[in-house]
Amino acid sequence: MKPMLWIAPAILVLSVTAHGQVTPQWEISGDYSYARANLNGSSFTLNGGGGALAQNLNDWFGARFEANAFGTTTAGTRVTMQTVTFGPVFTYRKLSRVTLYGDVEFGDVHASAGYLGISTSANKFAMNAGGGVDFALNERAAIRVQGNYLMTRFLNARQDNLQVSTALVIRIGQQY
Questions:
Q1: How far is CA 131 from CA 7, 56, 148, 150, 174, in A?
Q2: What's the CATH code of the domain at 79?
């Protein structure tokens, strides 16, 4: 019975086609994210989600605002982390159903007490750099897979974190 549950979604996805590469004016996405926080070799994982709003200025350059929230329990303490970043996006749109991109974003990270051993909640600098690929479902929707290096600074030390996300992207308008 379980394999039968996948037949209808598979037929729907396979029957939807992209009609060539169109550059949207705006992209709105909602994601699930996994983060691996790291401090001096000790690490733990967080799960969460977020969203992004991007404006494409032409077919290869745009800007993205992104916000994410994560949480987990580590060493018996519930900890959270939120990021808010903004920066340029460089896109390769020469393939009909696949869009590749790279981005670098700068902003703020807020963490609760207990995160990486901090004693009180704090806001610090964050940099998010990486890239991904959008797989077009049709002209207005895509599935995004992305990986990012997330640099934060707590306890006078740099943390080199990993963030992996998957998202649904809604494309609005058309760039002329």
A1: 31, 16, 6, 12, 22
A2: 2.40.160.20
